[in-house]
Structures are given as C-alpha cells and as structure tokens.
Amino acid sequence: MVGRGRIVSSDAGGNMTDDDWGFQVERVDLAGLGINAGRRLGVVVVQPEYDVEPDGAVPFRLSDACREAQKDLIEKAFRIRAAEDQRRGLPVPFVLFPEYSIPVHDPDGLDCLRQQVEQVEGDVVFIGGLEGLSPETAHEVAASYAPDEEAARPFFGPGPFVNVCAIVVKTNSGQLSWHFQAKLRPF
C-alpha cells in the first residue's frame, strides 16, 4: 500500500475496498458529521506514504524510491475522482495532495498532473505541495507553467529552499490556469 485516499462528500455511500485501487479509500459523509454542504461538494484527498531526503542544501526532496509511485498516485487520484463522478452523478471538483508530495523532476509530476487535469470533463481544482525546491528552481517551474502571472515573482525562503503549493484550475470551458504559492513559514 502506497497511500490512503479519502472521498469527502455530501453524498453518503459505502467504503471502496483496497482491492479496487491498490490502497485504502474511504468515504467521509459530511451530512453524517452534521455539515450541510449540499450535494455538490466532493473532494478526493490523498495522503501518500513517501520518503523525503535532503539533496544538498534543499531538504524535503522525494526519495528516488518513491518518485514514480507519487506520479502513479496522481493518476490514481484522478481515476478515483472520475469513478466518484459516475457514482454520484455529480462532479467531484477538488483533488488535494499534502505538502512535499508532487515530484518536479524525474519523473515530472507536474507534467503528469497537467495531463490528468486536461482530461477532466468539467470544473476541477487541484491543490498540492511540491517537493522541496531551491528558490531558483521554484521560480523556473512557476514561470514555465504560469508565465503571465508568475514569471516576475521571485520565491524567497528563510534558507536555501522553499515549500511551494501548486494550484491548478480547469474550468468547464476548458480554460486551464496554474498558480504557485510559497509557504510563508516553511517549517
């Protein structure tokens, strides 16, 4: 098992089994928790099991052993999202990953993410933390994915690395936008 996933929605339903996805997936019924979110709210939350290791002055780089698994989890999260769309008859608009969980290079998790988001029919918002990056690399990544908005913004941290969150939004019309935000306090 390489992680856990949660389907958080306002639509009740049973748990999916590990056998369906290769890792634990459970549904959390918001109405059962006393939260009236209507039927539309749905979120796929992935909590991967991964190892980080320092890479010179930049801590929190994904280990070589788990990089491909993280990319596979991105693909799996979007397959789970599509299955939940079908089951609910309503779109699941959010996919969330924790900090330090998206590989940037070797393999390129952002390119994998772009491919998955582009395949989604309807609105979707992905929010996930990139592995530890140097400020220079964070700037290069942001400028390559969001050149109009991000190219002029430098990324600063209190040390030689930054903790960056990627927010990818695709609208029902197909418009795709990328946004990057450095954590204000990286620890």
Q: Give the radius of gyration.
A: 17 Å
Please report the number of helical segments: 5
Q: Which residue ranges are poorly predicted, with pLDDT under 50 across at least 5 consecutive positions?
A: none
Mean pLDDT: 80
Find the count of extended strands (DSSP E, 2+ residues): 9
- Beta-strand content: 25-35%
Strand order of the largest sheet: 2-1-3-6-7-8-9
Description:
The structure is a single chain. The protein is an alpha/beta fold and 187 residues long. The protein is built from 5 helices and 9 strands; from the N terminus they run βαββββαβαβααββ. Strands 2-1-3-6-7-8-9 form a 7-stranded mixed sheet. Helix 2 (64-88) packs parallel to helix 3 (109-119). The model has no long low-confidence stretch (mean pLDDT 80).
Write a short abstract of this structure.
This protein has 187 residues and is α/β, with parallel strands linked by helices. Helices cover 29% and strands 28% of the residues.
